[in-house]
Amino acid sequence: MKKYNVVLENTDTRKRVNRVYEGNGIADVKTKIKAALRKSDQERHCRLCRDGFEIDESGGDMIYKAVIPLNPITKKNSQQICINRKTGKRFVRQSERYKEYEEAAGYFLKRPEEPIDYPVNLACVFYRKDRRKVDVSNLIEAIQDILVKYGVLKDDNYTIVVGLDGCHVEYDRENPRTEVFITKAI
């Protein structure tokens, strides 16, 4: 029996809930989810996200989960070009806005005893407070650097973060946040 991470979305409120189901394959898990939705009054109006189902097919164990209740911002779009007073050369540095975001995000991360140094899959759901277009790869780069800086990941290279399955951007004006899910890669 494998464990599957499933995301349910309430069609009325557009709120998402994560559930873990066990089963002998995706078809078995889909059957169990549909039966649970029929029985539950609370989740009666839910649907399974993304083409009917959003299932972590890796079956990997969830080893880390965090929610950063801040409006996600990108690292690349928050840079400043400055001039070195001694040499007169230009250089790029992060803006104060990004530095504040990075520092504030650190307060919401639970630090493991040892940084994760084995292959994992990283999934992030970015809930933004506006509908402006944003490059999801820039958001991922920012959150990976934050996870490394605060000791959750040892590094964000390809030998540790082997997959970015399930990363996407959503709209939530009332509750902007970033949800981070790390599962062990198979």
Topology, pairings included?
Elements: E1 2-10, E2 16-23, H1 26-39, E3 46-48, E4 62-68, E5 79-83, E6 90-94, H2 96-107, E7 120-128, H3 136-149, E8 161-163, E9 168-171, E10 177-184
Please tell me about this protein's structure.
- The protein is an alpha+beta fold and 186 residues long.
- It has two domains: 1-57; 60-186, Holliday junction resolvase RusA (60s Ribosomal Protein L30, Chain: A).
- 22% of the residues lie in helices and 33% in strands.
- It is built from three helices and ten strands.
- The chain is globular and about 70 Å long.
- The chain starts with a strand and ends with a strand.
Form type: globular
Oligomer: single chain
Number of strands: 10
Low-confidence spans: 47-59
CATH architecture of the largest domain: 2-Layer Sandwich
Summarize the entry for a quick read.
It is built from three helices and ten strands. With 186 residues, the chain is an alpha+beta fold. It has two domains: 1-57; 60-186, Holliday junction resolvase RusA (60s Ribosomal Protein L30, Chain: A, 2-Layer Sandwich), CATH 3.30.1330.
Features:
186 residues, alpha+beta, 60s Ribosomal Protein L30, Chain: A, 2 domains, three-stranded antiparallel sheet, globular
